[in-house]
Each structure stands twice: as structure tokens, then as C-alpha cells.
Prior knowledge:
By secondary structure, the protein is mainly beta. Helix content is 9%, strand content 39%.
Amino acid sequence: MKNKVYLILIAILSLVSCQKEYQAPQSATQAMAGRWWVQVYLDLDANGTADDVNDVLAMDFSDFGQFGLVTSNTAANDADSVIIDDQELFYYMRGVIPVDLATLTFRPATVLNINPTAYLGTGETLTVVNGGIFKGAGHSKSGRAADSINIALQFSDSPGDQFILTGHRDSGQPEDQYQ
């Protein structure tokens, strides 16, 4: 009788352990999602490219105290847009930006800043002039190859100014943190 109970328990356990492993759903914009260490330049020559000769470095990697930009999927998991969010570290900016996943580029657009604050109020917009994510084109603080990001933005409350956020994907490794 004891052997039958053990056999039944073994049979039940083997049935339970043969269940298919859970697969988490993937974001439609996973290739463009991430945490980014960025530098912020005031693009004085409005050419969309950050350089130390013609542009002013407004914030460096370590000025943020953490990664400075987050790109993520929308709540609807749309394949044609991402949320960009500076986590209130630079411009109190959060917007749903149209993207082209095939080329990993941000499409030019003017969108509502969905992070209204007492400073900005409501109805402020941000304009994506150009930008993209470049696979393996950057380097982390420790020298590892990393994806890079470059995005040129304008804000409705700062007409005529163009800002460039440029940097690399956060590796999550302690030696790559700028704090």
C-alpha cells in the first residue's frame, strides 16, 4: 500500500513538473527600449550633432546622478511609438514619440509633454527634430561596446533652442555607473 502511494505521488509530481515554462510577453518596441546615460548639449548651430566646438555641454553623464533618459513601450504596446522620459532630471519631459523600428529612428514630430509640472504647466510640447539608436556604436564607461542614442529636441517654452541628448545604453554593471 505504501508503495502505491509513493507511485501516485511520483506520477503527480512528474505531471506537474512537465508544464510548459512561462514566457513573459515582449514589448513591441523592445529594440528601442532602455535606460540611457546621456549628455545634454545646447545645439547652437542647430545641426543635430553634438560637438564641443560649436555646442555647449549643459549636463554631463554624472550630473544626473543616475541614467538620464528612459525609453519604453506605451501602455498600448504600440509598435510605432515609444515613451521618452527624463525622469524630471533635465527638462521634466515625458512624451509619446513616433518611431520607425526598422531603422531604429525617432520620427520628427511635435507631441504633448505628458509630464506637466508647476514649472511647465500644461499644454507644453516637445518637438523631435531627428534622432536614432545605433546598435553597438557607443561605449560604456568601462569601455564595453554599447548601443548609442542621439536625439535632437526642441521645447515649446524655449523657442529657438535645440537640445541634443546623446549617450549610450546603461549596462547595469557597477563599473559602468557615473555616480
